[in-house]
Amino acid sequence: MITLLFCGVCLCLGVFIIEIIGYHQNLNLEIAQHLAEQTVIAENLNHDISVLNQGNEKMLLTVFKFYKETYLTENSQIEIARTKTNSMNQTPLKEDEVNYQILKNEGTPYLYITNLLKGNYRSWTLTYQYDLSSFIWRSNQTRLAYLIGCGGILLTLTIGLFVILRRLTAPLEKLTSMADQLAEGDLGCRADQGSPDEIGRLATSFNNMAQFMQQYISDLQESSRQKEQLVANLSHEIRTPLTAIKGYADYLLIAEVTEVERIEALSFITSESARLQQLSQMMLQSYTIQHTSLDYHRLSLATILKEVDYTLSEKLQQKNVVFDYEKLENIELYGDPTLLKSLFINLIDNGINASEAGGKVWITAEITQTQLCVAVHDNGCGITQNELEKIGQPFFRSDSSRARHTGGAGLGVTLCHKIIEQHLGTLHYHSSEKGTTVTIVFTCC
Known about the structure:
The chain is an alpha+beta fold and about 450 residues long. The chain contains ten helices and eleven strands.
């Protein structure tokens, strides 16, 4: 609106200046025309009276009467007077000087042009009088036309600018409304980005920002939900071993027990303490993966599996499970040795837990131009499809014997997922009623 007002003022001011300049130019032309006419009359009169009779005032008046009747029109007339001053302002006139001025007579503007006659009549003045009413009327008509034109142009500009500004500001008003909705918590609002101009690009940027905010808030909410679930599950997981430890400790303090019962109780306390220690170590390792820099190297898969075999050898013997990883000597992968060892320990340990006595856990690998696929197989009890979809959630344990009878906390698979994410890979599960295969896909090997 301020812009519109400024444009209108500038337009009116420009038209006003042009009209004033035009008026003065036309007035000067009008004066010049009548000055020329007065000069012709004066020269002819001087010539005629000098030829007829020099110094005869009667002859002068006779000749002048003829001139007055000849040049008398509706708007102009001439007069002579015996004086050397301007009859309008009583200022003295000089020879060959032409004096003019515009005066009003009874409200009517007149142009008065006065000069001295020549020769023996230098004491006489000739005054040419012209009525400027018609000129003023034409000027007023021109001024009125200017004003009407200015008003029409201003009205047209006003309507045009209003329409243009309305079209320009309408998308901005919509964007403002969308921003207000976004500020009020409506993260699903989106702006119309139909136009390819700056407004359209602004709408696109706004939508990108809204999309980012929506995703960011969604991630925060999901993270908060997972943390709440983590705390709840952790509380539940540590309650059972702590209750058992406290119960057996109280039993040892209060009851009179035999040496065999004491050793059995202490063994259970030690077992539950080890379980709590394992739980805390997994929690710490899960945090460390996300908040520390890792040390990546090119590693031999067979070397890692040999270390895993050594770590799990006692458990393999106790469960009477065979671990096979032959024909993997020439396969290499790129990653953090500590994390990759932890990854395979968890996956193979899960396979051992699921296997019965005489079972088998084995490793296979397949190399393509862009991927290395390492699969961990077991022939133990399988996992249902519903449980497969939840694998990777902290503290999730299936109801099958793969987890419950081992007392696992459900953090191992979650840790595996985080490790493989740090190595730009993916983890896939396939299971049937008998046996499970976990495929690790490394995109860079």
